[in-house]
Structure formats: structure tokens, C-alpha cells
Amino acid sequence: MLRLEELLLPSIADVTVSSVDVNVEEVRIEAQGTVAGSDCPGCGGCLRRIRSSYLCFPADVPSGGRRVVLCLRVRRFLCPVISCGRRTFAEQLPGLTRRYGRRTERLRSTPAAIGLALAGRAGARLASVFGVSVSRSTVLRLVEALPDPEVPALRVVGAHEYATRKGRHYGTVLVDVQSRRPVDLLPDREASSLAAWLAKWPGVEVVCRDRALFFAEVAAAGAPKAVQVADRWHLWHNLSEAAERCVADRCRCLQVLASDPAQRVPPSRRSPKISPARPGRGDTASSTAPA
Ligand SMILES: [Zn+2]
């Protein structure tokens, strides 16, 4: 027979549900922990001496369209260690509550997962469809509170700039080229910041970058043993700009051909109109080897 704990609080260990009250609008669950003792966050000792208890009401995910009110009986333990800075502390139920948290862990993880996919405003709108009422600021705050994902050993790193305010403020984005995932963001594009970051990853063998002289110097300082290669996008970008300039410089030859009826090209085979070339970007460095 399925127990209430398994039905209402699955994957939460050491908790018992004493009563469940269901009405049209809400589900009221009364529960409490069952572990005999708890580890003191100050000294780490396992304590069994209970000083008091109180009720708390962390917000929980809705069930079947009904609001869930979780009435949790929390015990407060007394630490007898004189040298410990914590005299008393409240128990926490792993997987359900956290210190100073006003919502259950599953209510944190739901809007956080939505926020990862949709960000703040759209994430808050979709969460409300599921009955989770959160503001867009809360969605962003929950996403920011997520732990950083584990970064595997890096071998090929891409370093590029990004703009938070175009023309005014730039940062640096570091990408794992093999998995095509960003691994870190630096708040600036200072040489010292990037060189220090590269120095933390001695296993980097290849630095993929654009052709700006800044990145060449920094990569040589931070990862002197790494091979520097130009990234594909900038190679194609520079090549297309050079081809555009070349054709624009010879525009008069094309006009002569176009004025000669014998050399006129049928409309279906004409090239698109060539616009005057703009000054190229990132043409300064030349110490790279194409990827
Ligand atoms: Zn203690």
C-alpha cells in the first residue's frame, strides 16, 4: 500500500505526513521530520537534544490545480558545545527545505528550469500557467542561484568579446570549442583577466580567437604552449570583405561589360548589386595559422 509520504513527498527521506486536508481550493499537508538528531552547522556534531519546535509554511508546488499549503513542524536543536558559535539551530529536511528558504526545493527547481529555457519575463508567464506564481525578478534570481555546471578538462578554447553596451562596455566569453558550450564570462576584456583565466587551465592546447592583436598577445602570455588558430567565422568574414572590396575596385570593368550588348548577361544570371566596401575589422594581426 502506498504511503502518504511516498505519494505527496516522493524522494524526501525521513519525513512523515500526519494529516492531509483537501478542499476545493487547497491541499493542506501537515508533516515533520523523523530523524532522531541533526548535524550542527557550527561544529558539525550530531545533536539529539531538542530545545523547541515551531510551524513553518514554505510555499510548495500546486497539486491538481489546487494550492498546496505545507505545514511543517520544525524542531530546534540545542548545541551543548561551549566553543560552538551556534547555540540553537533549526533542522532542515534535505530535498525539501533549506536555511532561510521560503519555498520548497521543488518549487525552486521548477521556475529555475523554466527560467533557464525562457529567461525572466516569458518564464514567469509560463510558470503562472502551471500554477506557480513568481515574478520575473524571482525567476532570474533562482537561475542565478543555481550552482555552476561542472566544466570538463578544456583542450580547445575559444576567446571572443561580447558587448553588454555596444561601443561602451565589452566583456570576454570563453567557449569550449569541442562541446560548443560557453564555459565562462569575464566582465571585461582586460589582458590581465584573460591571461589569469588561461593560466588556470594548463591543459589548453589550442586557443581559437579572432585576429585582433589583443587576443594574440594575451593568448601567448596566458597559454604560451597553446597553438593559436583563427576562428572560422572571422576567416569567412574577412575573406568575404576582401572579395567585396576587390569586386568594388573593379566596378568600372563590369560597367564596360554591361554597356556592351554582345557581353550583356541575361537578367537571370546577373550577380547581386555590389555595394561599396566598408573598412575591414580585425585585420591587424597576422601571427595566426588558419584552423
Ligand atoms: Zn555546535
Brief description of this entry?
The chain is α/β, with parallel strands linked by helices. 30% of the residues lie in helices and 26% in strands.
Pick out its properties.
7 helices; 13 strands; five-stranded mixed sheet; binds zinc ion; six-stranded mixed sheet; single chain; alpha/beta; 291 residues
Describe the structure.
- This protein has 291 residues and is α/β, with parallel strands linked by helices.
- Helices cover 30% and strands 26% of the residues.
- It is built from 7 helices and 13 strands.
- Zinc ion binds at residues 40, 42-43, 45, 79, 81, 84, 86.
* Count of runs of 4 or more consecutive helical residues: 7
Q: Largest sheet at a glance? A: 6 strands, mixed
How many separate domains?
Answer: 3
Q: How are the strands ordered across the major sheet?
A: 10-9-8-11-12-13
Shape: elongated
Cα Rg = 31 Å
Bound molecules: zinc ion
Which whole number gives the mean pLDDT?
83
- Secondary-structure element order, N to C: HEEEEEEEHHEEEHEHEHHE
Helix content: 25-40%
Low-confidence stretches: 274-291
Number of E-state strands: 13
Structural class: alpha/beta
Euclidean distance between termini CA atoms: 63 Å
Question: Strand portion, in percent?
Answer: 25-35%
Strand and helix layout:
Elements: H1 4-8, E1 15-22, E2 26-33, E3 38-39, E4 46-47, E5 50-56, E6 67-78, E7 88-90, H2 105-129, H3 136-145, E8 156-165, E9 169-176, E10 181-186, H4 191-199, E11 206-209, H5 213-222, E12 227-230, H6 232-249, H7 251-259, E13 289-290
Parallel strand pairs: 2-6, 8-11, 11-12, 12-13
Antiparallel strand pairs: 1-2, 3-4, 5-6, 6-7, 8-9, 9-10
Helix pairs in contact: 2-3, 4-5
Bound molecules: zinc ion (ZN).
